């Protein structure tokens, strides 16, 4: 009885580890797609709304789900800090991404693209910022394509390996 219960717990634990790893592969393309939409909204706010960056970041943060919401909200708060020295757009963008890096499913290459975009935010005219935002969007679209392929390739494999490694552990214990 206890052996059967222990075996079921080991298999369930290993399977859940595989499902969690698979979920991280699934989260990256979704977050990249959301980031692309957010950057398109940022471009629209800059080009047609003449919206200051801090206000644009705050508005975009209200439209995003939790891991990405915090990034844009923190950037807006850092630029509008009344109790401290407000940061420039680049500093606020960098600070926010470095602070929330671990909460997202983004890869280092994705973060590099976003940090490079931060170097051009707020320091040039609207047309130049538009070019940089569109360039970042194109790069993130390529990364999203790669992330989807990785999920298709490794997502199912992680789930299967989780279950199979649990079964192997049970077999080796007996």
From TrEMBL:
InterPro entries: Spore_III_AB. It holds the Pfam family Spore_III_AB. It comes from the Bacteria. This is Stage III sporulation protein AB. It comes from Paenibacillus thiaminolyticus.
